[in-house]
Amino acid sequence: MKRMAYRILVLAVGLFSACRKPEKPWKLPEGTGGRVIEANTGTEYDTVVFVSMELGTTHSKLRREWDLLLYPRGSTYQVWLNAAMYAFAAQVSEAEWQQITQPSPSLPWKCDLADTAALPSLQEGDLLYFILDRDRGEAFYRQLRQRYRKVRLSWQGREVEVLALSMDGRDTALWRLPVAATPIYLSLDRPGTPVEIAPVWRSELVLTRYIHPFYDQPEEFRWYPVLGALLGDGVEAAAVRTAETPYQDMDFAKAQQLSYSSRRDLIGYDWKRYDFNTGTYTVDLSRYFVIRTGPMTYYKLRFIDFYDGQGRKGNVKIEYEPL
After folding, report:
1. Nearest-CA neighbor of 176 among 191, 157, 159?
2. Is the pLDDT of residue 2 over 70?
3. What DSSP line would sit under 216-251, residue for residue?
4. For residue 32, what pLDDT is reported?
5. First-to-last CA distance in the chain?
6. Is 210 within 8 Å of 265 (Cβ atoms)?
7. Domain locations in the chain as residue ranges
8. pTM of whole model > 0.90?
């Protein structure tokens, strides 16, 4: 019981603590001199930032600008929720979908994890029914009519249809979309056409809120939103301890010997730590990362700051170098 109470206290302090930096200047790691890219997610982490180290640029979108992502994968569409909005979904039968007029805790609610979608993939000929909780944290949608939708997905021939209803069935949004080889982002507040979210170029990293499971906690505290770095599509990464190979010593030959993973949250959220003594986050400099984007393309990177010049959190600074 004490352990659970301590975890809850830590999470609460991390969410609501002040954003000021320590009085002493931020001490950068030795050897800093590579390229630096900034990803400003906002003090409330309301911005998703796509990062291209190849181009040295970023692309930002407010996290509330979409609700669903249909991602083509072979002969299926993966169906993803907007985890940055702390969204949950409950798959139901057609009969249940027709009858339900109020959300219920007894529904089989699930959330997306970094590599696991809450909903099954959609194949040609499929019908998928679910209830969507767009914003469990009620950061943007506090009224039931805003927060919940009944959604039906169908794929017939060369067309994907998405029907979204309010729980009372009064508000209707409909999309009829040609089957495409590119991801389809949908905002349930903007029916008819997809919304443009991802950049046209490939992003190696995405700085965003996502849901991390704390399996040692009760159900109500288990699915916790964190801010971290997720790998882009087709990107692999390896974590390296500074004590074993200093950052400045990592080169192309050493990078080729590392063991890589495509797990999207391999970099994750814990490259920063909350410091109770200063009331701020500090960056963990005991490790850094190497990412591989092709057979001969490697980058080493490390996080060097989490604050902007005015001491506001959420401004992630990444030092990186191509190898």
Report:
1. 159
2. no
3. TS-HHHHEEEEEEEEEPTT-EEEEEETTTS-GGG--
4. 54
5. 49
6. yes
7. 2-62+201-322, 67-186
8. no
